[in-house]
Amino acid sequence: MKWTYLVPGMIAFLMFSALTVEAASSSLQNFEKQRERMVSVQIKARGITDENVLKAMRRVERHRFVDQQYRRHAYEDYPLPIGEGQTISQPYIVALMTQVLNLDDTKKVLEIGSGSGYQTAVLAEICHSVYTIEVIDALGKRAAKLLADMGYGNIKVKVGDGYQGWEKYSPFDAIIVTCAPTHVPQALKEQLAEGGRMIIPVGEQFAQELVLLTKQKGKLMKDAVIPVRFVPMMRRDGKPY
Ligand code: SAH
């Protein structure tokens, strides 16, 4: 091939590559701005004050936990589909549930309902270690891979029925449940450490209450937080608990 063809071709190619890199980095900056805005408008403004939570939510790239087609909505004030009929929770709900658990870097946490892995990442930013269980095989595997790719070394993901908890690693300083059973599972009550906190939506399919349980001298104290609507907690055969 003659230089007269090759040189303009190479220049065009280099210009094109530079433009694509430029576009990718400006959309990353854009996501960072959207994240900052999400934290100030949806989270701080609604009364979330825990610095650990605000910092974690500024850091975790929520757009990486949703499908390409939903990325531009990743920082909006609502839940989004993540496949298999499941959803990633609204950012404010993630922040609220995390805040009421009073977490820090000494805590070992159990999460039921890994879903996209977003809430898991927020917990992992703050806590010493996170154990998370997902009942749908495809979601559990995808979350495990993404979280490992993002470099989290303090998360263990298991595909299984979270109704049973994860006895091997119990007791947990905190338990967070992101799917709704009709009652608090006995195993989870037992696997909560003394002084520990559990946040869980409890109720029928369309009317649940977010409940905070605190274990004091072996007994569970209960506080209702707000009414919510989560996907039901399911058995492995897909039937709700
Ligand atoms: N925390 C998730 C929200 C996922 S929605 C996120 O940030 O994306 C709730 C998840 O709970 C769904 O993925 C659903 O499959 C899962 N789930 C339902 N029943 C379950 C059970 N018995 N054990 C574990 N996970 C369950």
As a percent range, the share of strand residues is 25-35%
Order of helices and strands: HHEEHEHEHEEHEEE
Give me the oligomer status.
single chain
The averaged pLDDT comes out at 92
| Arrangement of strands in the largest sheet | 5-4-3-6-7-8-9
Identify every distinct bound molecule in the structure, by name, code or SMILES.
S-adenosyl-L-homocysteine
The major pleated sheet works out as: 7 strands, mixed
Model regions low in confidence, pLDDT < 50 over at least 5 residues: none
User: What form results from the Cα inertia axes?
Assistant: globular
DSSP helix count? 6
What would CATH call the architecture of the domain at 82-228?
A: 3-Layer(aba) Sandwich
Q: Give the fraction of residues assigned to helices.
A: 25-40%
Straight-line distance between termini: 69 Å
Radius of gyration, whole Å: 21 Å
Structural class: alpha/beta
As for the CATH topology of the domain at 82-228, it is: Rossmann fold
Give the helices and strands, then pairings.
Layout lengths: L2 H42 L6 H9 L20 E4 L2 E3 L2 H10 L7 E5 L5 H9 L2 E6 L2 H13 L5 E5 L12 E6 L8 H6 E13 L2 E10 L2 E10 L13
Parallel strand pairs: 3-4, 3-6, 4-5, 6-7
Antiparallel strand pairs: 1-2, 7-8, 8-9
The site of S-adenosyl-L-homocysteine has 24 residues, from strand 2, helix 4 and strand 4.
